Amino acid sequence: MLHRYVTRLSILDRSLVRQGHDPAAALRDTVRFARQAEELGYHRFWVSEHHSVPGVAGSAPTVLAAAVAAATTRIRVGTGGVMLPNHRPLVVAEQFGVLESLHPGRIDMGLGRSVGFTGGIRDALGHGKDDADRFGAQLEDLLGFFTGAQTAYPGVHALPAEGLRPQVFVLAMGAGADLAAEHGLPLVIGGGGDRLREAIGRYRTAFRPSEWAAEPYVIVAANIAVGETAERAALLQVPEAWSTARSRTRGAFPPLSPAAEILRTEMTERERALLAESRKGQIHGTEDEVGMRLHDLVEVTGADEVLVTMNTYDLEQRLDSYRRLARLS
Hints:
Layout: E1 8-13, H1 23-40, E2 44-47, H2 61-71, E3 76-79, E4 82-83, H3 89-102, E5 107-112, H4 119-125, H5 135-147, E6 167-171, H6 176-183, E7 187-189, H7 193-206, E8 218-222, E9 224-226, H8 230-236, H9 238-250, H10 259-263, H11 269-278, E10 283-285, H12 287-301, E11 305-308, H13 315-326
Parallel strand pairs: 1-2, 1-11, 2-3, 3-5, 4-5, 5-6, 6-7, 7-8, 8-11, 9-10
Helix pairs in contact: 1-2, 1-13, 3-5, 6-7, 9-11
């Protein structure tokens, strides 16, 4: 019997490049995938921000979100997320003001506090590691540009953002959960175990209602694959996990390649260990098996929504997995 549950399902896509294809193809696939996600009934479709990472085409999330929103009609569209330390709050407010004006009631502004992962990238962006510590102040300025209450820059208005209300989310990294609670914003969080539960519990306890959200709202991010068998589902997660493992030893995220090809590769012990580490916490199985795992995840975390991050080499197999997963919602 199919194990169903009622939590909303959404998607985060990072526009990963596939072997034999270029970044432009990855971006076009993201837009096409968003249309498919809408047809399958997913609640949100988010894109991400990565700079100077070979193999990842998603570098300009607000630009890509605009293309996704224009290609769809109902699904909510947003970012998971814009890394606020890389940008001036005024510019971010203006960009989302344009998005919300063109697609009213459909835009999500997901915000993170990460900075570029190498010194060269941070220099190119004009920011340093310490800028992540300014996330709270930047967040206040950004929200103030929408409400008209910002005081850091007298006489400055973010147009057409002022007065608009895209949905705002904070991606939890370190102090992110506490800042989300302090500002009364929904929380997006990944990981697992006691640290995940503790962060969510702290967020719910400290949450202050605001004009952005009256009560806590938690989105848990998870890598989930569904297949005809558990073995086939597990294979879907190999390509991205392998690229992640390789990126930690070679400094580049290689294009996704077929799982069978990866499993024939002669790996070093370190590569095997990194591959296993990359797969920790992933959920895979048949529809019944995944349904039970999702039920447990929601029971443990109290998640209001699950943000699915799974990507793989074969696009048809990816779509089949998301189609099977959608039936659980």
